[in-house]
Write a structure and sequence with these properties.
This protein is α/β, with parallel strands linked by helices. The chain folds into two domains: 275 residues, Aspartate Aminotransferase, domain 2, CATH 3.40.640.10; 129 residues, Alpha-Beta Complex (Aspartate Aminotransferase, domain 1), CATH 3.90.1150.10. It has 17 helices and twelve strands. α3 runs parallel beside α12. The protein is globular and about 75 Å long. The protein binds pyridoxal-5'-phosphate.
């Protein structure tokens, strides 16, 4: 099945009602057949629905569809992109372990590692997605996290360089594929072990639901042989060893242990909204990318420094050509000073001042005062966020209307 068909058809088997659209199983719990059957479910001897914090039939369809789209073996959908990133990291590391963190990431991922996880003894080091980082690896390095297309610097990761180093040292790679989407980039085909998404962006496509996804590759299992959480018995489940019991041990532990105990569950209604969105993702991402490129070219003609990876003049062009089919709808440009950025943002009418991306409605953001506000000067510089940087999330409106809005705001 091709990706366009997977996005519309995969994972849904009609029940007796034969509803064409996927039903919303808006339920907290499920009635067990007997006390014996309930005990078997809880002891993982039988598969089935236990409680929506751990699994739900509507969410299950979304998980299967996303995993298939990313060419993974299994997927887990959670309450937000941040919880997906959080779970994928803490499913690997313990106190004293280190995470290699791309210096060009969404601000929330940076603060998660640099602040939130610090009191728990999880350490980090920054690396650059285009420079050999072998010297940063220590016996404690357990995860390498980066974005396929980074928000908002729009740098494209050098997948071959990153995955070959990671594989040499048997370290797990996590790639956030939110901006490129499974239609723009296929990280698992490029050698990545785990893909994460904020599905709140392009996947839902209209800003109506927050959610996150974790997708496990087939190759991950081999690497997990070196990770304690997977190769030693879990006391909380009568000594099961995830690697022995499950085809997709990473997803199984994230669901059965992390969702059970931390509980960042998605609502079934949000899963359903996401399933509505995903059906049109292939068409939308094509159009977002086409209009974004037109806008990037317009801004270049206006004399600004513009970041858009598929522009021939962009410093990421060679990586975009090698690894991306579409670059998505995010364009960032530097107008030099804070006051000038402020004026342009204020004068825009069709671009709404919002901290979100991937909506059908065009959005403008000033990262230095919003999404990346908590970073220090050095981190801002590394993340490619200057005071004059404006980020556009180009929507699906007519490109001429969007360009006219920008023209008016700039002059
Ligand atoms: C690339 C990227 N990853 C993760 C996140 C966090 O996702 P969420 O807002 O769904 O928690 C965002 C949010 O903007 C993002 O842009």
């Amino acid at each position: 099945m091709k990706k366009e068909t997977i996005a519309i058809r995969y994972g849904y088997q009609k029940d007796n009602n034969r509803t064409m659209n996927i039903p919303i199983y808006q339920t907290t719990a499920y009635e067990y057949e007997s006390i014996e059957s309930a005990a078997k479910l809880f002891n993982l001897e039988e598969e089935g629905n236990i409680y929506t914090r751990i699994g739900n039939p509507t969410t299950d369809i979304l998980e299967k569809r996303l995993a298939k789209l990313e060419n993974g073996v299994a997927g887990l959908v959670v309450a937000s992109g941040m919880s997906a990133i959080f779970y994928s990291i803490i499913n690997l590391v313990k106190s004293g372990d280190e995470v290699l963190l791309s210096d060009k990431l969404y601000g929330g991922t940076i603060t998660l590692l640099t602040h939130a996880l610090k009191p728990f003894g999880i350490k980090y080091r920054y690396f650059d997605v285009h420079t050999n980082f072998e010297h940063l690896i220590t016996p404690q390095t357990k995860a390498i996290i980066f974005e396929s297309v980074a928000n908002p610097a729009l740098s494209v990761a050098d997948f071959d360089m990153i995955t070959s180093i990671a594989n040499n040292y048997k370290i797990v790679t996590i790639c956030d594929n939110t901006i490129a989407t499974p239609f723009g980039c296929s990280p698992i085909d490029l050698g990545v072990d785990i893909v994460v998404h904020s599905v709140s962006k392009y996947i839902v496509g209209n800003g109506s639901a927050i959610g996150g996804a974790i997708i496990e590759s087939k190759t991950l299992k081999e690497k997990l042989k070196n990770y304690d959480y997977f190769n030693t018995p879990d006391d909380s489940y009568h000594q099961i060893v995830y690697l022995d019991k499950f085809e997709a041990p990473f997803t199984a532990r994230a669901r059965l242990s992390l969702l059970r105990d931390f509980g960042a569950v998605i609502s079934p209604f949000n899963s359903w909204l996401l399933l509505q969105g995903i059906e049109t993702l292939s068409l939308r991402i094509k159009q977002h990318s086409k209009t974004a490129k037109k806008i990037a070219k317009f801004l270049q003609k206006e004399g600004f420094i513009v970041n858009y990876p598929t522009l021939k003049s962009d410093k990421n062009y060679k990586y975009a050509k090698k690894y991306l089919k579409y670059a998505g709808g995010i364009v960032s440009f530097d107008v030099g000073e804070f006051q000038k950025a402020k004026n342009i943002v204020k004068n825009l009418k069709l671009f709404s001042l919002v901290t979100n991306i991937g909506d059908s409605k065009s959005i403008v953001t000033h990262p230095a005062s919003t999404t990346h506000q908590q970073l220090n000067k050095k981190e801002l510089q590394k993340a490619g966020v200057s005071e004059g940087l404006i980020r556009l999330s180009v929507g699906l409106e007519n490109s001429k209307d969007l360009i006219n809005d920008l023209k008016r705001a700039i002059h």
